[in-house]
Hints:
Number of strands of chain B: 0
Distance between the termini of chain B: 20 Å
Mean pLDDT of chain A: 82
Low-confidence stretches of chain B: 1-8
Distance between the termini of chain A: 16 Å
Subcellular location (chain B): Cell membrane
InterPro entries (chain B): MetI-like, MetI-like_sf
Structural class of chain A: mainly alpha
Number of helices of chain B: 14
Domain ABC transmembrane type-1 (chain B): 78-268
Keywords (chain B): Cell membrane, Membrane, Transmembrane, Transmembrane helix, Transport
Largest interface: A-B, 114 and 114 residues
Oligomer: heterodimer
Organism (chain B): Streptomyces roseolus
Radius of gyration of chain B: 24 Å
Low-confidence stretches of chain A: 1-34, 321-325
Amino acid sequence: MTGRSSTDKAEADTLGRRSRPAGRRRGPTAGRTRSWRDSPLRRITPWLFLAAPLALLITFTYVPVASMISYSFTDWDGVSPDREYVGFDNYVRIFTRPEFFRVFFVSGYYLAASVVQIAVALYFAVILSFNLRFRSFFKGILFFPYLINGVAIGFVFLYFFQDGGTLDSVLAWLGVTSDHPWLGDPTSANVSLAGVSVWRFTGLNFVLFLGAIQSIPGELYEAAELDGAGKWKQFRHIIAPSIKPVISLSAILAISGSLSVFEIPYIMTGGATGTQTFVIQTIKLAFQFNKTGLASAAAVVLLLIILLITWIQRRLVPDDKVDLV
Amino acid sequence: MEGPRSSRRRLPVGGALTYLSLIVASAVVLIPLAVVFLTSLKTSEEVGSGGALSLPGNWFNFENYVTAFNDGKMLTAFGNTAFILVFSIGGTVIIGSMTAYAVDRFDFRGKKLVMAGFLIATLVPSVTTQVATFQVINSFSLVDTRWAPILLYMGTDIVSVYIFLQFIRGIPVSLDEAARLDGANAFTIYRKIIFPLLKPAIATVVIIKGITTYNDFYIPFLYMHSEDLGTISTALFRFKGPFGAHWEAISAGAILVIVPTLVVFLLLQRWIYNGFAQGATK
């Protein structure tokens, strides 16, 4: 996960330039050196292996992207055989009608939540990289929510935020009486839902950070201690730099995640009380109101935003470990 | 995980606060789940009268589970989920490992293009393309069949291709060559040498794929409307209607869905952490 070490890299390089023992080959051009390499069979073999994967990749990624772009310039309803070309009308509607644009503000709540989530995950990852009692137990508890089914989480937290539900009972038990309808107004509903996503996703960030911290060689700490560096300095100069790539990855997952929130608000509120997100809106447009053209335009906008963010992140934190083949 | 390295450092003094924060975090994680578990054991009168934190009168009241399991059609749901799991995991493993084998072990024209094709696809989140993907599935007349999610889970799993690719690079090419000298063709090499040696990577992919498929709501929700095609996610989602405010039944349903995950997690902890760490950073 932390990229391949330099020895891996060297190995891969030699693998890339592997020389194959030539000659002694059965085949149409046997006798010539490098015969296997040049034989037609050899040339089509990789394509035999790639046929199914490429067919799936094209059918379920590239065809949808292309057709989505083409739908976005039409008024298609998704069913009827005819559709009309409407130019940029759909895009103009998305950016000028406030009700379409409001969903981006909802993402703001989730974005704020991801900051909390990353901070909490980082704190616990640092703590649990020390040798603690019940370490695996705490680690398991913090990670487990990430594995739970989203619908089950939705129900658990619907009950949590109910009048007289878990939250109210816990507060009463702590001596605080609360009559607040947690999912009742847009602000508190969005804060509550964003809180659920912190609960759900902190564990993943935590495990990623913990893995990165544990791959730091122990000698570094020992050397730092000999040099008189305190815990804080060790964190700042040893831990922080070495987990920077993982934090940057979490940041980008957080941003694209906050734009594409769907499950929890859909299950818990159905998008009511101002909790509608971009994806809920797109799904409703496409599958309830049959506005496939408009929904496609919305999806293209979302895709472009996510690509833009990814691009900015790559520029800001150049990933020196991109090694494809 | 608990290698010799983990014992290298002791917590500095001030550990009490550290433990306190860990206990608070555990409470935050466990209380909502524990309350739902308690609720699942209560009768509907108990749910109506007592607070959420009250204890059930009878700890062995499994009636709600029976109701949830039968009226919620959970058996069908587990069956459908199992069917989808088997095919999509099997397909992902075969397709991912074949792709990795072809890309790592062969030099061919267009290889860079193929790799770029897989790489660029990772940048496109599937939620954004679902409106158009639906039309693709629709044109194959696969909407409302179990093959729709199976194809989608198989076709869009680029993470597993990367996991296999990283792993296959570590398998020495000399093994392939020895087999080739013995007259094995590319397919035999893949099947008899590469595939068996990929076991650890296969375990990782099976775990990640299994858990995400088991939990997925979005795809079955969009593609399988019929009631008898419910997966555990959509079947549980349907509890919202008939059970309305019957929290004891809804809670039992939620616990029924969570328990298998908990069991798998407890059995495979170590591999699950590693699997997700590997999968997410690819």
